[in-house]
């Protein structure tokens, strides 16, 4: 079947994916997601309210709060900017959860690999929930 524009549907889909990839490669936006998934595709990276913050680098992460709301970007541990890599791999505040729920070789895995591990996702949701609870408690009443 040929479309009105003369292209086959499969060619149209390929062209669209190539344009999307080129736009993704050259964009300054969405870099957190691009770092996780540099090749565009039609599969979904399933998250939820908490995991999406780690996929995108947005939300309760101090780095994001600093960039958009002029808050302190330094993690409450005081050792680094709180980005998703610090939070997931390095922050001492969450070492107990990592010891309990992460695979022993977690430091050799990518963030994407960890986000695909159901047990790790549960631990990361717990971390993000606790972060949000602290943020809500710090709001002026
Ligand atoms: Zn920290």
UniProtKB/TrEMBL annotation:
The gene is AVEN_107003_1. It comes from Caerostris extrusa. This is RNase H domain-containing protein.
């Amino acid at each position: 079947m040929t479309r009105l524009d003369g292209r086959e549907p499969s060619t149209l889909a390929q062209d669209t994916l190539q344009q999307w990839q080129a736009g993704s490669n050259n964009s300054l936006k969405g870099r957190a997601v691009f770092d996780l998934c540099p090749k565009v595709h039609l599969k979904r990276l399933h998250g939820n309210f908490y995991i999406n913050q780690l996929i995108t680098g947005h939300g309760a992460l101090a780095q994001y709060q600093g960039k958009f709301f002029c808050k302190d970007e330094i993690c409450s541990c005081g050792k680094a900017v709180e980005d998703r890599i610090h939070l997931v791999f390095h922050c001492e505040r969450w070492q107990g959860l990592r010891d309990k729920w992460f695979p022993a070789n977690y430091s050799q895995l990518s963030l994407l690999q960890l986000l695909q591990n159901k047990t790790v996702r549960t631990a990361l949701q717990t971390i993000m929930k606790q972060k949000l609870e602290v943020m809500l408690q710090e709001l002026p009443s």
